[in-house]
Amino acid sequence: MKHLILILTLVLSVPSCASVNLKQHAVQSAQASEISLEAAHDAERALFAVGAISPERHKQIAAVFVTAFDLEIKVAVGLKLWRAGDPPPVALADYQRDLTEILTYALTLSVDPRAQTFLAHAQRAVDTAAAIAKAVGVE
Amino acid sequence: MTLEQVLALARAIQILVPAGIATTQQIIAFVKTLHTDLSEPELNAILDLLIAGAKRHKAIAERDAAGG
């Protein structure tokens, strides 16, 4: 755990480095968001596997994850073309809204201690998506 | 690098190297990557990996959403 915190400290120090350009900030934030979203997805599936989520609720959450991954792909394609000064990728706002929906599901489940990992990854996905938005100039 | 970043790097070396998790050179190389401007092709390569990962997870989620 201590090692993870150290590595995260180093990674999170990136945005404060003035030599790194805005597009790189956006790409690295998108990468962090992808890692967190995948981890949240894995955590949700693990919760379902141990019976902490009903089959019906699992299907509902899976549908939201489908949309999130689809929007994330669109954001990544948009970032490929993005240059400093351009408007943000069009899918970014929808991506952030979808991640917030996943976070809401995670919060609903968080009364169960087993859902804390899901909640933590969902929160991190939301935070890192906000970092993408900041890098591409969303107020 | 700010003082806080230098201290974080020093602390990482202090803990990770004796534990045999990484060499000092590996840690410095990692941090240099983070603090160096990447080229457009390098950034696009990261985005391609991201897209591939998202597609894999999307396919899994689609199966789950369909009740599979």
Describe the structure.
Chain A has 139 residues and is mainly alpha-helical. Chain A has 5 helices and no strands. The radius of gyration of chain A is 16 Å and the shape is elongated. Chain A starts with a helix and ends with a helix. Mean pLDDT of chain A is 89; it is low at 14-19. The termini of chain B are far apart. Chain B is elongated, with a radius of gyration of 18 Å. The mean pLDDT of chain B is 83. Chain B has 3 helices and no strands. Chain B has 68 residues and is mainly alpha-helical. At the A-B interface, helix 1, helix 2 and helix 3 of A face helix 1, helix 2 and helix 3 of B.
What is the fold's blueprint, element by element?
The complex is a heterodimer of chains A (139) and B (68).
Chain A: H1 2-12, H2 22-49, H3 55-81, H4 92-109, H5 116-135
Chain B: H1 3-16, H2 24-34, H3 40-65
What's this, in brief?
Chain A is an all-alpha fold and 139 residues long. Chain A is built from 5 helices and no strands. Chain B is elongated, with a radius of gyration of 18 Å.
Catalogue the unreliable spans of chain A. 14-19
Q: What's the helical proportion of residues of chain A?
A: over 70%
Could you tell me the radius of gyration of chain A in angstroms? 16 Å
Beginning-to-end CA distance, first to last residue of chain B = 49 Å
Main beta sheet of chain A? none
